Amino acid sequence: MTEIHGLSRREFIALASASAMAAAAGWRGEKPMAERTEAAKSELVGLSAVDAVAKLRNGEVSAERYAAALLERCQQGKALNAFITLPQERVLEAARAADVLRGSGAKLGPLHGLPIPVKDSVNTKDMPTTGGTPALRNFRPKEDAPIVRALLAAGGRCSGEDEPARIVVRMDEQQPGVRCRT
Description:
single chain, mainly alpha, three-stranded mixed beta sheet, 7 helices
């Protein structure tokens, strides 16, 4: 196998994306359709947030398809325990709503349809916020944190809560009376 040296990650992804686009445009090689579909999914999960939003806003990619590809990727890495809360059906419902909004011609926010995970130490009223601590497993905030409200107002969607850094939890535990704010 030939090794290509000197390619940055961005250049590699661009090259891989161009290959996937050639396949989507009708290239008829030896690879079966399932492998071409996997390349398309790989292209979606490799998009930067800026590129993903551009494709979502212009309808090149549906929010539901993008969210489904990201959720599938999360499932592949489930053993990493990166997410404390990952409400898959809620994420897909929000993506469908984003697609409907785009189709209606309404004004779209700068993060339209982009699923964004937040740390589990940030209050989200629709999900438990545990801060990674079992003692808080049933804590349901009454309102979203300001950063979550800003995310939603910009058209982004909270896709779940990922594991906070242990330092956040340890600071809370080691300094009684001091509340961590993220």
